[in-house]
Structures are given as C-alpha cells and as structure tokens.
Amino acid sequence: MYASRAAEKLRRQQSCASTVQVFINTSRFNDLRENYANSIRIPLTTQTSSTIVLTKVAIWGLRKIYRRGYQYQKAGVMLSGLVDEETRQADLFGVTSGRARSMKLMEVMDTINDKMGRGTIHLASEGISKAWSMRRGNKSPNYTTDWDELVCVE
User: Hey, what CATH class is 2-118 in?
Assistant: First the structure.
C-alpha cells in the first residue's frame, strides 16, 4: 500500500525514482519485548514510477528484513534518486517495449481512483482487506493548508 501511494505521488509530479528503501520497526518504548528495527535500500536498474515495479521491489525488500515473532509498530517505503520523467536515463539496452503499456495501465488506474476514490482499484499484492488504519485521534487541524478548515470569525 505504501509503495502504491508513493508511486501515485511520483506520477502526479511527473517524476521517477531510482531507489526504494523499505523499513520496519517495533516500538522502542516497550521494555517488555525485544526491539527490532531494520531497513533495506534497493537500487533500481531504471528509474520508474510504475506501481507494479515499485510494489514488487518493496515486497522483495520486506521479505529480506522481516523477522517472525515481533509486534511491528511502524513500516514504510521511501523513494529516492528522484528525476523528472522527461529527463530520466534510458535503459542501457533500450528495452522499453513494456514501458509504454505499463504507463498506460498506471494512467488508467490513476484516472479511476481519482474519479471513484482512492483505493477503488489497486494491485492484489496490496491486500484485499485492510484490518488496520492510521490512528488520527491526535491529528492537528489543517488551518494553514485546507480552506475548509480555516477558522472564520464573525
């Protein structure tokens, strides 16, 4: 899910990433359990904004660092080595046959999700049901970034 969301943002700003970093960690404040934190940085052969490629790479990285028996508190995906879509470096051997088709698929997915709501269409590797969600009980208001939450004084 994190890789998919990051890929959407890349495409929206017309960028590509050349490196994916995946991280996981347990709560460092829980003294009763052993702590574990790890991350892996995976360089890509070509820069991309494809949800399919970024998700595959992120899942591969997660499988490398995941350890059974821990209660994980935090996980994430970071993309780096961002370049503009127009100026990205081409593949050494010029293999671009599937790239146009993949980008068209990503464009269709983004269009459907924009019209019908985020998550309407997604990769099966993201999971079918999400049994958890982010805690937003302590979220601060968006007075400075959202016109709808701007305080009005009469």
Answer: alpha beta
pLDDT digits (tens, 9 = 90+) for 115-152: 887 777 767 666 666 666 666 777 777 878 888 888 78
Helix segments in the chain, DSSP class H: 2-12, 51-65, 99-116
The SS3 call for residue 96 is: coil
Q: What is the mean pLDDT of residues 43-65?
A: 91
Q: What is the pTM of this model?
A: 0.71
Q: Around 14, how many Cα atoms within 13 Å sit in the side-chain half-sphere?
A: 4
Kindly state the tokens that stand for 34. 């052993």
User: Tokens for 135?
Assistant: 């805690």
Which residue in 119, 127, 107 sits closest to 10, CA to CA?
107
Tell me the helix, strand and coil percentages in the chain, rounded to 5. Answer: 35, 25, 45
Please report, as a single letter, which amino acid is at residue 80.
S
Tokens at 38, concatenated: 């790890």
